[in-house]
Design brief:
Layout (H helix, E strand, L loop, with lengths): L7 H7 L5 H9 L16 E4 L10 E4 L3 E5 L5 E8 L18 H9 L3 H8 L14 E7 L5 E9 L4 E8 L2 E10 L4 E8 L5 E8 L3 E8 L2 E7 L3 E2 L10 E2 L9 E10 L2 E4 L3 E7 L1 E10 L12 H15 L4 H16 L3 E4 L4 H4 L5 H7 L4 H18 L25 E2 L3 H5 L9 H26 L9 E2 L15 H4 L4 H16 L2 H22 E3 L6 E3 L2 E2 L5 E2 L5 E2 L1 E2 L3 H21 L3 H13 L19 E2 L25 H16 L6 H13 L3 H14 L8 E2 L6 E2 L1 H15 E2 L5 E3 L10 E7 L4 E8 L2 E8 L4 E5 L4 E3 L6 E4 L7 E8 L1
Parallel strand pairs: 32-36
Antiparallel strand pairs: 1-6, 2-3, 3-4, 4-5, 5-10, 6-7, 7-8, 8-9, 9-18, 10-17, 11-12, 12-15, 13-14, 15-18, 16-17, 19-33, 20-21, 22-23, 24-27, 25-26, 25-28, 29-30, 31-32, 33-34, 34-35, 35-39, 36-38, 37-39
Helix pairs in contact: 3-4, 9-20, 11-13, 11-14, 13-14, 13-15, 14-15, 15-16, 18-19, 18-20, 19-20
Length: about 800
């Protein structure tokens, strides 16, 4: 059954027949003197008809390690470049600032002196994280470019290429940019059709301490050293960016640009001059002295420059077409694992050819835009997180500022986990691996922090971390405890390792990599639990609901109390996951018994006076009823402890909590709107999901569709919004956090027809769906055998007539089970 409102080409591509040849032929046959036709691809292509007005409107490309933003300027091109290991600093020890203070803090908490506990917390803070830094800008300044009659900028998600076409008096100018993972190169090409040839200056500039030299008529070399300290942008301190001459205190880095052209080239002062060219190609490589999170980055500049030169040497002699073909093949191997197309009447046809920002302005609730968000989120994760790279940070791998918002670091109380919520579901487990690798480094440093700060076993992680896997509480004695002192990052990171196992069933991974990290996080939580002397119940103290404040009985505000809902939810989940892992592995039975006994003593979830799920163990008033975080709703999503089917009363209380937050202005950032949408999906509220997605597109993205935070005085990019909303969209279609697979659990009303492929479940199955108002077709592809229950919405039933289906995943020689559904 083919959804009538979708282009047949889009449906065929979801089923494995790509439309790339159509796009290629359209480009090849474009008449001279006009922009080439824009193929109808509303779910996999961003299109704009003007240059980027600022960095956040540029188009992102990346290979997990190297990133570039293409601006599409009329008088030339600016490429903003990044390398994922270029950070300030070096490995460091957070110190033992909290030694001996934990018991004092607990005494204050249990005496009800919460503001006093906040004051003491500042004495337990260590240094701030280091900062992710911009590499350079590559400029191609065109001579006498001539007036432009029209411009089109495109980002092709299937091809992972950014392009610019400009219709000038002298002909058509075309620019193409991609970042190749196989070649480890940034590749930029500009060419002119028609008689007009061009001249250009090619130059690099850098905000860091560096030098730029033209070493030959075809090579520019940037060499520099990163600062040893880069203070957060919100700290008003003298000399916030500090350099050191000591080897390894601040890393060396290098970028090398090589050009090829059919014109002539000569060296200038730190630049290259190109004359009489019909085409120009620039290949750029980069490297740093980073050698791992626990080792000084003390490679000397010559060695770093040699590392940067190696990819260029390997690619020498390979034509542009070969590099592009290898890049496309590599990208598609990940991108085409999953895809979503959504219709709803003639939406897609009506918006054919419109720029993306015009589509958004015309109808932010357009289902095709929701599908574009899902596919864009997958694209951004592929571009910023590949095996062997660092995890995606607050901006993925793209950053143009020396002191970027929040240091462009890793914020563990929501942002880093949100970046990876959709990795397994969207069939990008490979892209999850950088976080898995990072977890092991965090556990190593976190063990030192647990011991030195708290005299605890296991490992812990606080609010921020960085390239060096720092784990101490940040703040330097001046941070607000509601974020700086939050100590529960380890359980959240450990959840990702268990999820990776649940989706893959990889026992070797569970035994050798996940279990040691999970066990260490659980050991810390065992030590962290303490008995409330008044009630005798187990609780956590100090306990912080991240970034939020409550009002005490005497009208003061505070952050620290005991037994916040998020703490209890994450510890209950971690203990349960460890008990299950120990059973699967057949080991650590004694430790599992300890966890089981402690789990039985954890306090229950509580419902407060407004009918809401309580955020704190005491039904405090919120200092900000519309706060952006909803940490107490963790057991709904990303956890799965509370569900409408299993615990309807608590699910209703969670919905009430979210309603109250949003009634007071909550979900005010891109990432918080994404989290709220995922929670609505888990609660089975498709109408609310559709409304939230429309709000997300209307209020929480830049013109480029990059997610935003309403930072003063100007919104800033945060990639967790894009990656989190993709996870929420997947949750609308398929869920598997209970003991069954739920199909269409929260379908927005306007998603009347569509097709999705490649959604993975925790039961080892991959799901393809195709639906219209008349019914749906479901394909379940088994990775491991067994029988699974498939839950359906009330509007659908199997053609056999049952409301719930039992599906044998061993059905068929190809281990594919087919389920036909009809509308009720």
């Amino acid at each position: 059954m083919t959804p009538t409102g979708l282009h047949r080409r889009e449906v065929l591509s979801l089923l494995g027949t790509t439309a790339c040849t159509i796009a290629a032929s359209a480009h090849a046959s474009a008449p001279a003197g006009a922009l080439s036709p824009s193929p109808a691809d509303p779910h996999h292509r961003l299109v704009f008809d003007s240059p980027a007005r600022e960095w956040i409107e540029a188009l992102p490309v990346g290979n997990g390690r190297l990133g570039a933003m293409m601006h599409g300027l009329l008088d030339g091109e600016r490429l903003s470049l990044n390398e994922d290991t270029l950070w300030s600093g070096q490995p460091s020890v957070g110190g033992a600032a909290a030694d001996g203070l934990l018991e004092q803090m607990r005494d204050l908490i249990f005496a009800g002196d919460y503001p006093g506990a906040d004051r003491l917390a500042r004495r337990m803070q260590g240094h701030f994280s280091e900062a992710y830094l911009p590499l350079a800008d590559l400029h191609v300044d065109l001579d006498q470019a001539g007036p432009a009659r029209a411009i089109r900028r495109t980002l092709d998600l299937r091809e992972a290429t950014a392009g610019v076409e400009i219709d000038r008096d002298g002909g058509i100018e075309r620019r193409t940019l991609f970042v190749s993972a196989p070649a480890q190169l940034v590749v930029f090409r500009i060419e002119r059709e028609g008689a007009a040839r061009f001249g250009a200056s090619v130059r690099l500039d850098c905000q860091l301490r560096s030098s730029i030299r033209a070493v030959s008529p075809r090579r520019l070399v940037l060499a520099g050293k990163a600062p040893t300290v880069c203070e957060p942008d919100y700290r008003n301190v003298p000399d916030p960016v500090r350099y050191s001459d000591r080897a390894g205190y601040g890393m060396a880095f290098a970028a090398i640009a090589e050009i090829d052209t059919d014109g002539s080239v000569r060296k200038g002062e730190g630049a290259l001059r190109v004359e009489n060219a019909g085409w120009l190609e620039i290949r750029l490589a980069a490297a740093t002295g980073y050698r791992g999170p626990h080792v000084l980055p003390d490679l000397d500049p010559g060695a770093v420059e040699a590392l940067a030169a190696a990819p260029l040497r390997r690619a020498r002699g390979k034509p542009h077409t070969r590099l592009l073909a290898d890049h496309r093949r590599d990208h598609r191997a990940l991108y085409e694992r999953s895809a979503l197309a959504l219709g709803g009447g003639d939406t897609a046809r009506r918006h054919d050819g419109l720029p993306t920002d015009a589509r958004r302005a015309a109808d932010p609730g357009d289902p095709a835009l929701a599908a574009l968000l899902y596919n864009y989120g997958r694209y951004l994760l592929i571009a910023s997180s590949r095996p062997g790279t660092r995890p995606a940070n607050l901006q993925g791998i793209w950053n143009a500022q020396l002191r970027a918002p929040w240091s462009c670091n890793y914020t563990t109380n929501i942002n880093v986990p949100m970046n990876y919520w959709m990795a397994e579901t969207a069939n990008l487990a490979d892209c999850h691996r950088p976080l898995v690798d990072f977890a092991e480094a965090l556990a190593r440093n976190g063990g030192d922090t647990a011991r030195d700060y708290y005299r605890m076993p296991g490992w812990c992680l606080h609010h921020n971390t960085d390239l060096w896997a720092m784990s101490n509480p940040v703040g330097a004695g001046e941070g607000d405890p509601n974020w700086a002192n939050w100590p529960m990052g380890a359980p959240w990171i450990a959840q990702h390792l268990w999820e990776h196992y649940r989706f893959s069933g990889d026992l070797a991974f569970l035994r050798d990599r996940a279990w040691p990290v999970m066990r260490g996080a659980a050991e810390f939580c065992v030590g962290w639990l303490v008995r409330d002397p008044a009630s005798g119940q187990l609780t956590t103290a100090p306990s912080i609901s991240p970034e939020n404040l409550f009002v005490t009985a005497d009208g003061r505000t505070a952050a620290i109390s005991a037994g916040c809902t998020m703490d209890i939810a994450m510890i209950r989940e971690l203990f349960g996951n460890c008990i299950a892992a120990a059973a699967v592995l057949g080991e650590d039975a004694a430790f599992a018994k300890v966890l089981r006994n402690l789990s039985e003593e954890l306090p229950p979830y509580r419902i407060g006076r407004h009918g809401q799920l309580q955020e704190w163990s005491v039904d405090f008033a919120e200092q900000d009823p519309g706060h952006r975080t909803v940490s107490h709703l963790y057991p709904i999503f990303p956890g799965g402890d509370i569900t409408p089917r299993r615990s309807p009363r608590l699910a209703a209380a969670a919905a009430r909590s979210l309603d109250r937050r949003e009634a007071h202005g909550g979900s005010s950032t891109g990432w918080s709107r994404a989290w709220a949408t995922a929670i609505r999906a888990r609660l089975g509220d498709g109408k609310a999901c559709g409304e939230a997605l429309e709000r997300f597109l209307a209020d929480h993205v830049a013109r480029s569709l990059l997610g935003t935070h309403p930072f003063h005085p100007h919104p800033v990019f945060q990639i967790d919004a894009n990656l989190g909303i993709a996870a929420a969209i997947a949750e609308c279609l398929v869920q598997s956090h209970e003991d069954r697979i739920e199909l269409f659990p929260a379908l927005p009303p306007r998603w009347r027809e569509g097709a999705v492929k490649g959604l993975r479940t925790r039961h080892g199955a991959t799901v393809d769906l195709e639906w219209t108002p008349a019914g749906a077709t479901v394909l379940l592809h088994a990775r491991r055998g067994g029988t699974v229950t498939v839950g359906l919405p009330p509007s659908l039933r199997p053609s056999s007539g049952a409301a719930v289906a039992q599906v044998d995943l061993r059905v068929g020689r190809d281990r594919t089970a087919r389920l036909a559904l009809i509308a009720v």
